[in-house]
Design goal:
Rossmann fold; 5-stranded mixed barrel; globular; 279 residues; alpha/beta; binds hypoxanthine
């Protein structure tokens, strides 16, 4: 079936199952699942398996559910079960859920991830709202065969990560425009993984101007932006990237660090939802 038709079916199914679209949809990444669900009052929980053709993780440990409820009066959807390029998914599959959410009518998309810090002054546990990205190999959902439009478009990515939303988030956290000690905007470098970067690559990425490195987010941000949604993204820094400060990244350590800093991450997630511009 063609992608456009698939998305229409998914959007219809979202309306039928959950009613009108939420003000904010949040894509949870590694490390963010644990406390997020507790932020919603009276959530309705629907497994992704309820929706035909919504790609689901091929790795264990990512809860693949939608939670729809109110977060301090803002209708919010939390989406577990992000899929990645390293699982063998193509761009159109990686972004299908996000495109379906925008087709449903979601105006604001918050993308969360875990990332390695490229800067000794951004220690693990810190949070980095994305000001921009470097795409170093993640698949582009606007390529022919991946886009929903028949005509290829040359899309500007200036302002991809919504500046007003990011500024409102920092204000809500009581921080100045440049951020504070543990929440500071920066540039995210996206690589395909699933290997962590080599120490030489980490030096290169820092030299290129990136502040953190991860394996997700960029395809979804591009697809949502091109479809007309506002995008905000936040990295939870779970480790120093390889070689930095002697670091040798390990997935279990990444999850442990995320868990240890879950409370602050949940606070920032709540502030980001409440900072989303209302239509
Ligand atoms: N590199 C890439 N992705 C990551 C890292 C890292 O160091 N930590 C968490 N996700």
């Amino acid at each position: 079936m063609d992608e456009k038709r698939l998305l229409q079916i998914l959007a219809d199914s979202l309306v039928k199952t959950l009613g009108p679209p939420p003000t904010v949809a949040v894509v949870l990444g590694s490390g963010w699942n644990e406390r997020a669900a507790g932020l919603l009052s009276d959530p309705r929980v629907v497994p992704l398996s309820h929706f035909p053709d919504w790609p689901r993780p091929r790795v264990e440990g990512h809860a693949a559910d939608l939670h729809c409820g109110e977060l301090d009066g803002v209708r919010t959807l939390l989406c577990g079960g992000r899929v990645h390029a390293y699982e063998g998914y193509e761009a159109r599959e990686i972004v299908r859920g996000v495109r379906a959410l925008v087709a449903w009518g979601v105006p604001n998309l918050l993308l969360l991830n875990a990332a390695g810090s490229l800067d000794l002054e951004r220690p693990p546990g810190g949070l980095m709202p994305l000001s921009d990205h470097l795409n170093l190999g993640l698949p582009n959902p606007l390529h022919a065969g991946q886009t929903v439009d028949t005509a290829l478009t040359f899309t500007s990515l200036v302002g991809l990560y919504d500046e007003a939303w990011r500024a409102a988030l920092l204000t809500r956290l009581g921080l100045p425009a440049g951020g504070g000690a543990d929440v500071r905007p920066g540039v995210y470098a996206g690589l395909t993984g699933p290997t962590y970067e080599t120490p030489a690559e980490v030096c290169m990425l820092a030299g290129l101007g990136a502040d953190a490195v991860g394996m997700s987010t960029i395809p979804e941000a591009i697809a949502a932006h091109a479809a007309g949604a506002r995008v905000c993204a936040i990295s939870l820094l779970t480790n120093y990237a390889a070689g930095l400060g002697g670091s040798d990244p390990d997935h279990l350590e990444v999850l442990d660090t995320a868990s240890a800093h879950g409370e602050r991450a949940a606070e920032v997630l709540r502030a980001a939802v409440l900072a989303a511009p209302l239509e």
